[in-house]
Design a protein that fits this description.
single chain, alpha/beta, 9-stranded mixed beta sheet, 7-stranded mixed beta sheet, 27% helix
Length: 437
């Protein structure tokens, strides 16, 4: 016998009067981190909203779930604050919510750190998140977090159809239909728009149904494994939700770097949450680490996915290449530049020649692969603002930092400038990147 699953829709409110909806368990508003509960709609004539459509889709495919409305989005422009999102997640933790639905998100990198930390904390406490990627297909929090079931629409899908996005490099796990026929109270039907916002509620409904069927899986990975075997899931090739390409959300002390021959250590290293393997695993090893329920990275699988997304197209994004020949110095430069870019509210994607750096959310640029086309491929998939190559020499980079004859040489369209101290290099590069800021 299953139980009723509690789904909270964090959006611009759920209104009655148009769609077939259940009685809401809770209806609250959080604005400027202030809670108003219960929340009464000040516009009684209003019968729909973005959140209302999301709720109607969830109810249409999973009529047994309990729904709550947490209003954190306001105004015609549908804007909200990361602090209100965090307060909404705290409300969900204290009100026995099972699944948080988010057809909202942020592409502002200044919001990433605190939103990501709260999502990870809540996921560790058992809260399940389903979130829509931005319609611009840019890197989106929280949809692109590895703790979240990220969803993007696919126009050719209809009704309950979806498939697992097994070649994703950006942690958007599922491509789903956003084309739904929703019955209205007046007997007519509403056809939803094609957008990511209305693809995610389908997956929320699927997740809630799986959780309520008595098995009650408790992690995103377990749910994705079950979703990959559902009848409405198309293209049922093997899906592995434990492989991670970026954004692992685990601190360095929880990352282990092993050779494939050291695989036997995985079971005993219970304090480690993420494993990076220096060589490709066997099918048996890959199956085993999934049984251990550990996230992992292996170069063979990554290179296969990168090849699937490969593009020879050029990119207009600025590329910075740190290639001094000193590995630790390149990493220090890249870390400092990453922080500077985040501080300017831009999102950088970093490619490194060192496999171990994938543990901090950097992309691996395997030896023998040219930096420029690899950067273009990541640019097309992730839609970042700036690309950084760490220990990847690339003459086509907009800014190339090398070490020559005891000095740092910074090559750009302005020519070659020489610097003697590492700190002056970062200031010079920042000046070139942000000169128009």
């Amino acid at each position: 016998m299953g139980r009723k699953i509690h789904v909270a829709v964090l959006d611009d409110g759920i209104f009655t009067g148009k769609y077939i909806l259940p009685t809401l368990l809770h209806c609250v508003k959080i604005q400027n981190c202030q809670l108003q509960a219960p929340y009464q709609n000040p516009q009684p004539q209003r019968v729909t909203s973005h959140g209302t459509v999301c709720a109607a889709i969830i109810h249409h495919y999973a009529p047994q779930v309990q729904l709550s409305s947490v209003k954190i989005i306001f105004g015609e422009q549908r804007t909200g604050s990361p602090d209100d999102l965090i307060a909404g997640i705290d409300w969900c933790l204290s009100h026995h919510v099972d699944v948080v639905h988010l057809s909202i998100g942020t592409v502002e990198s200044r919001d990433f750190q605190k939103v990501g930390a709260k999502i990870h904390q809540a996921a560790q406490q058992g809260l399940i998140f389903v979130a829509a990627q931005s319609n611009s297909r840019r890197y989106t929090y929280p949809a692109c977090l590895s703790d979240v079931i990220g969803v993007r629409q696919r126009p050719i899908y209809r009704g309950p159809q979806y498939r697992m996005n097994r070649d994703a490099l950006n942690c958007v796990d599922i491509l789903a239909s956003s084309s739904h026929e929703l019955p209205l109270l007046d007997g007519t039907v509403h056809y939803t728009a094609i957008c990511n916002s209305f693809a995610a509620p389908l997956i929320t409904a699927k997740v809630a149904s799986l959780m309520g069927n008595g098995q009650y899986p408790t992690t995103k990975e377990e749910l994705c494994s079950l979703l990959s075997r559902e009848k409405d899931c198309l293209a049922k090739e093997p899906y592995d939700p434990y492989f991670q390409a970026i954004n692992n959300c685990v601190p360095n002390q929880q990352v282990a770097v092993l050779s494939a021959s050291e695989f036997g250590k995985v079971e005993s290293l219970k304090e480690k949450q993420f494993f990076i393997f220096r060589q490709k695993l066997t099918d048996k090893q890959r199956c085993q680490i999934c049984c251990y329920k550990r996230r992992y990275f292996e170069p063979g699988e990554y290179e296969k996915r990168l090849k699937t997304k490969w593009t020879e197209e050029k990119t207009e994004l600025p590329i910075i290449s740190f290639a001094t020949g000193k590995r630790e110095l390149d990493k220090t430069f890249s870390l400092q530049m990453e922080q500077e870019i985040f501080a300017q509210s831009y999102y950088p994607a970093i490619l490194s020649s060192e496999l171990e750096d994938s543990g901090q959310g950097w992309f691996f640029c395997p030896p023998g692969i040219q930096g420029y086309p690899a950067a273009c491929t990541i640019a097309k998939e992730m839609r970042p603002d700036i690309l950084i190559l760490c220990s990847v020499p690339e003459p086509r980079a907009d800014i190339l930092v090398e070490y020559r004859a005891g000095q740092f040489a910074v090559t750009s369209e302005e020519g070659v400038q020489s610097y003697s101290a590492p700190e002056t290099v970062i200031r010079a590069v920042c000046g070139l990147v942000f000169e128009d800021e």
